[in-house]
Amino acid sequence: MRQMAPHDHHITSPGGAQPPLRLAVGGMDCASCAMKIERAVGRVAPGAEVSVNVPQGIVRVEAVNATRPLDRAAVTAAITALGYSVAPAGGDAVAGASRHGHDHDAAAPADAHDHGAAADAGPWWQTAKARMVGLAGGALALATILDLLWPAAGSWPFVAAALIGLVPVARAAIRAARAGSVLTIEMLMTIAAVGALAIDAAGEAATVVFLFAVGEMLEGVAASRARRGIRALADLVPRTARRIGTDGRVAEVPAAGLGIGDRVLVRPGDRMPADGRIVEGAALIDESPVNGESVAREKGEGDDVFAGTVVQDRALTVEVTAAAADNTIARIIRLVEEAQESKAPVARFIDRFARVYMPVAVGLALATAVLPPLVAGADWTTWIYRGLTLLLIACPCALVISTPAAIAAGLAAGARRGLLIKGGAVLEGLAGIRMVAFDKTGTLTEGRPRVVAVTGFGIDEGEVVRLAAALETGASHPIARAILDRAILEGGLDLPQARAVTAIAGRGLSGEVEGRSLLLGAAHGLNDPALDAAVSAAGENGWSIAVLSEAGRPLGLIAMEDAPRADARAGLDALAAHGVQVVMLTGDMPAAAAAAGRALGITAHGGLLPEDKARIVREMQAAGQGPVAKLGDGINDAPALAAATVGIAMGGGTDVALETADAALLENRVGGVADLIGLARRVMAVIRQNVAIAIGLKLVFLATTIIGLTGMWPAILADTGATVLVTANALRLLRRR
Ligand SMILES: Nc1ncnc2c1ncn2[C@@H]1O[C@H](COP(=O)(O)OP(=O)(O)OP(=O)(O)O)[C@@H](O)[C@H]1O
Ligand SMILES: [Zn+2]
């Protein structure tokens, strides 16, 4: 089931009081559709933030500073008035509609703007847009031949060709105008072409109409390629699975129909058909398709496996733990698709700019057509022609698509490499990061501490471990694992029952064991010389500690060692190469933090409570160190993740990691942070190039048109060319490096 935007976190929605409206719209797949819809919705929902996701057909309306609550019916009506279809219900309809929601075809006649029709269903040459190109192109070719064979016919073959190509465009323009959007690209095209016919430039009118159709088609092709960037992940999951029946017989069934608890047989070379847990066997598993982890890993009984990963050498029996719609890949796709809807600030700016730019350009065109003849007595035909050409230049297609195309491609490229980024705003934030704060346990270290020393104060060491392990039985901190492992080693898991266990994030646990009220955790507030000596000795070795105490009196000390991650050094170096500073913020005691910091060559602050971490992150941002990213893996990092410009979760696809942070590394690799920042910077560079291309070409043709150097068809060619160029530039991000 698709949830209604459960991932609205602090960056993309600053505390919106009302849930955003989400509508699945069929039939749009280009920038001008998006602009039309945004304008129409903006009129019925004043002050609302509208983002239109072209490839996925999703319109998201959020009441950022709306004057009244969002009215779903009014928004829906505004969109249908433009000739697009809106799926009846909210959330669930979205997924369906983006895959096969082309019902609008029946209601709306196929014309220049009903290109959603075949966008998913068939190859690009079968789309309505391609038919348009064929029609306009065929008519133009016929007219040209006629003109060569029979010059006496004059210009009427071209007039006919222009009209044939123009009819669908004009229809779309009129429909949009009726719905309230007068200044559309179709309208500009229609006026320019009709005007050209009027001043007897029929040949050019026909050419312009044809080139416009080509541009629209290429844009559609590019849009579906960007969409495939993320959808390709879904193809990693095999269509069928070998389910083991209750009678032990194996039957081939559709993977989508597997239920939780089903057992499947996965043979060497097979892709995993579902998320699950190995119940029998062990094998080398290649997880690179899902999280980019480059080395195959040995997994055995009890280990979790992900749909889409490849079993390399031996057969496994796997028990399914998630339905197809909830598996890791499906969740990633959903997150990225939602992220593609959220606009980066730079995209918002461009949208606003385009909205101002179009009327200005139209005004300029009008002035160009009218002023020189009126004021200076210049030739009317020449200047009307130049004015019409400027109308074509007023089309902001390339500019409008330049940013969303780059962001969509960037997010998809990241997801393929195990870098999950939740939206354009996060990308933009990441590109500007100057400082990264890491926690220690589980991020810079393996997060698998091992007990290295146990000290008892007045009680036996085994007793210390036994009581501590009883408290840790349900705990999730890595320390719990270490202490329980030790307890098993010493005498099995025959532990006393702990009651009323409470976890205090960043401090430890409290609870009752065998009638005694115990505390286990950091050495806060215990003044005991013997304990202090043991604690500082542990700190000097870089060990972490858990102190067991009763009524403020220490009973024992457990010291643990956690190895640094093998790739920590390289990952930190990669950040340094990006000019990014690094600091360690850890809940572990200061001495242990300092030892780990020394080993890695970075500044370390220890003994921090969760709120201390958040405070330091805020202080760093305020102190002008620029945007700060915080990397963390546990609940004790949540406040700091939220305080940071960008909160990055580390932790192989766990729910917490995926849902709470702004970005997540699916693979536990320190170098992933540098990869994230590098990718974000590349995306921003592409955006800058695209904006330069789009505006630069317009300026050049603006000048050459006014001085009369170039005419109509170079103007439309420049627009088409720029649109294709910026999209192709964005798709470069999808190339595997
Ligand atoms: N479940 C627990 N059992 C025992 N001690 C704990 C537990 N949770 C926390 N502590 C104590 O509190 C300290 C701080 O814990 P916290 O979870 O904030 O940081 P951490 O996980 O050690 O390090 P980092 O902040 O780098 O992830 C630990 O070093 C430990 O002494
Ligand atoms: Zn369109």
Automatic annotation (TrEMBL):
SUPFAM superfamilies: Calcium ATPase, transduction domain A (SSF81653), Calcium ATPase, transmembrane domain M (SSF81665), HAD-like (SSF56784), HMA, heavy metal-associated domain (SSF55008). Gene3D superfamilies: 3.30.70.100, Calcium-transporting ATPase, cytoplasmic domain N (3.40.1110.10), Calcium-transporting ATPase, cytoplasmic transduction domain A (2.70.150.10), HAD superfamily/HAD-like (3.40.50.1000). Pfam families: E1-E2_ATPase (PF00122), HMA (PF00403), Hydrolase (PF00702). It catalyses: Zn(2+)(in) + ATP + H2O = Zn(2+)(out) + ADP + phosphate + H(+). It is found in: Cell membrane. Residues 1-20, 94-119 are annotated as: Disordered. PROSITE patterns: ATPASE_E1_E2 (PS00154), HMA_1 (PS01047), HMA_2 (PS50846). Residues 19-87 form the HMA domain. Its EC number is 7.2.2.12. Its main location: membrane. The lineage of its organism: Bacteria, Pseudomonadati, Pseudomonadota, Alphaproteobacteria, Geminicoccales. This is P-type Zn(2+) transporter. Signal peptide: none annotated. CDD domains: HMA. Residues 1-11, 100-117 have a biased composition (Basic and acidic residues). Keywords: ATP-binding, Cell membrane, Membrane, Metal-binding, Nucleotide-binding, Phosphoprotein, Translocase, Transmembrane, Transmembrane helix. The keyword Transferase does not apply. InterPro entries: ATPase_P-typ_cyto_dom_N, ATPase_P-typ_P_site, ATPase_P-typ_TM_dom_sf, ATPase_P-typ_transduc_dom_A_sf, ATPase_P-type_domA, Cation_Transport_ATPase_IB, HAD-like_sf, HAD_sf. The chain crosses the membrane at residues 156-174, 181-199, 205-223, 356-376, 388-413, 691-709.
